[in-house]
## 1
Amino acid sequence: MLSAQNISFVELCKIVAFVMVVHGAAGELSVDIVETQTYLKMGNIYLHLNTRDEFLRIDISTIVYFEADGNYTNIVLANQLKGVVCMNLARMQQLLSERLRDHARIFVRVGKRHIVNSSHIYRINVLRQQLVLSDGERFAFSLDVSKEALKALKDIMITAKPSPDHD
């Protein structure tokens, strides 16, 4: 429950004012993705994607990967739900950076077709051109990725400094 004691006016305004509608001259929606916003609530970080026809509110820790599909991006979650937004993968990558700021570091671009949540990387098999994303319990997704992209990802994972949460 939100109360005056545990939330500032500015934080409340950020929560309330996260959707901005943009209309063209003829009253038509001129932008498919109107606004995205993140906010903290009970320790979770949410990505909001608002399109002409639907609104997605996604806890970023549940995002396993994003996959390019032409001018669209598929969003695959740990519970195997899939969402689709009218935005190419390059724009999605830019939006993640802008909106999530420091939290966007968990997402890594892998080749031309994928952005993956690095906390779900289970196996990188360069020879088989396969990337397996899993939480070790509930899900496992196997992605076909080029050798070059997997080699680069492997190098990133090997040289990455462990986060302070993990010893």
Note: The CA atoms of residues 68 and 113 lie 5 Å apart.
## 2
Amino acid sequence: MPRVARKTRTRSHLGRCFFELDSLPQAEITGQDMLDTIALGVLIFTAISLLFGAIAISRIPYRMARERNHPHQDAIAYGGWFSLFTLHAVWPLLCLWAAAYRQEPQPVFGHISEDTAINDKADLAADDSQVDADITDSVTLLGHRYEVLDDRIERIEKAILAASDAA
């Protein structure tokens, strides 16, 4: 059987193929092709902007709930994502749910009666002498209350000692 010579691909052959790509006929880019490319870019940008806008809108009820310290913040956040996938069908309900709760403001120092607090007029007083007089009155009142409480403590201690001696 006669021996057939095999043609082997060498590196130079592969390299030559890549360099011959420049000699292929190239399509001309026309003005219409450029407009199509720009229109595609604008379409992609618009789609991405609408997606991020829809996500931002779906987060509004959660932000309202977080500002109001709503006890169901997590549920409202999950509802916002659910609303995103249902094209915001439940979004108005989430807004109402988040807006319906308002936490009652808690007093910082608890309830303070008028006779134990510094007079509120001290903030409104124009001259310092009135403020000083109000502070002096409040300190005098607190000193009197301290004496009363100290007397009560002494009486209670005496009653406890008398009860323990009797037992």
Note: The chain has seven helices and no strands.
## 3
Amino acid sequence: MQAVRIFTYGIAFFFVLAYLVTISEKFHEWKLKKKRQALVKTFKEYNESKISLRDEIFFRLYLSGSERCIQDLEYLLSNPEKLRKYLSSKKDKIKFRNNTLNVTLFQLETEEIVRIEDCALSVCGERLGILVSFIEYLRSKGEMNNYDSATEECTKDFSDDVEALKLNHLKLQGAMALHECSYAKGVSYFEEYLKANPNDPSVLWKLACCYKRLEQYADALELIEKAIRYSDDATSNYLLFYNYACYLSLNKQSVDKVMEQLEIAIEKDDGTTVISHLSTESDFENIRNEPAFVSLIEKYKVAQ
């Protein structure tokens, strides 16, 4: 019986403790809310002649969120180019880094804090001035932590620059390996690079070259097709289409497909590079006696 009594008292004590913790947290939240409301009221009274109803959005954001929210908003309004990416989704809450602000571009436009005309975005200097003054006032009251949007932005930009340098180095190492006929090394460098930029055509076609040299023709064909699909230069780069024709031939695809890509490559070639390689290119060995291929060579021999 005594053990049951102790167990019952223990359960009761646990629930009482949990209740007291909840009450304490609620009381702390209530005190924080009252403190914030008092700070907002004082700021409004002190700046009564400058504040308009449009500025209420700043105060609501402060009362409903963290200090970081209004600091991030102040940074974004001071750098309006950062807000332009929300032009196509004005009713979505603005996200800055890993923080979601409880405000949308549509709300900012409605309150005439920002103005959008012909996809150009500008910020009302008067409204921004109120927000800056409000943040400075809160800092003077010890309410703002040490978080700084601009500092975080610069840190992130620096990290991005370092990452870009690493990726460019991988790209260069891969190109050097390909040039030195170290095709397996080239594959490792290019594949590591493509983890970050999977649709970069300039690397996809070089990786395809490496696989071709390693006699992995199916992989080479898949990669060159992807390179062409994602290449902005596909309209002017004959080499992509010439390699595509080579890999089609090596994979024993239809002669018509090979001819189609060769015609595109010849058309895009400013000189005679493609034509001069046709009769000696070993990749076309299995179609060399095909009438269509023979006809193509004869056609451009006549043209020369």
Note: The chain has three domains: 1-46, 53-145, 194-303.
## 4
Amino acid sequence: MAVSSPITVVIVDDHEIVRRGLVDLLTLDDAFEVVGEAATGAEALQVVRATRPRVVLLDVRLPDRSGVSVCRTLGRGPQPPAVLMLTSFSDADAAAASAEAFARSPAGQQHAVAQMRADLEREHAQGAAMERERAQTEERLRVQESFTEQWERLHRRQASATTAMVDVANGAIGAMDAHNARAGE
């Protein structure tokens, strides 16, 4: 599938090696564009506000605040991004706060990437279906407008023809009346 615009992603994790690994993983696929990185919750909020990504990969445990708190703050903002919570720990709060998925391992992260791709493909297919329907609706409107214009032209011609026939009939009646008047004289 050709992707018209990639899914923009911000990666938030206090471990640089994790961020690097996720960047490397996502840049292998043209469907994704990493637009920012952050190591703390405060940085995450700044980067997300500045870049307005569609997806945030967010570590549950950050040095200055919890990822769950960051997720909830992002969710209250205008046009909140989808959030995938990342952790190597079992954390029920993170699972509840996560907007899209809860990944606990590299395999889970790969699954999350596959899910993001599937969501993009579904969104693309829905967009294409909506575009087809819009085009069909426009075509129906063009046909309807054309039919209306043709109907109005036909109606005008019919009215003109009727007026001409009435004029001819009146002229013929007038000629017959004149002929009868002369014949009766």
Note: The chain is about 65% helix and 15% strand.
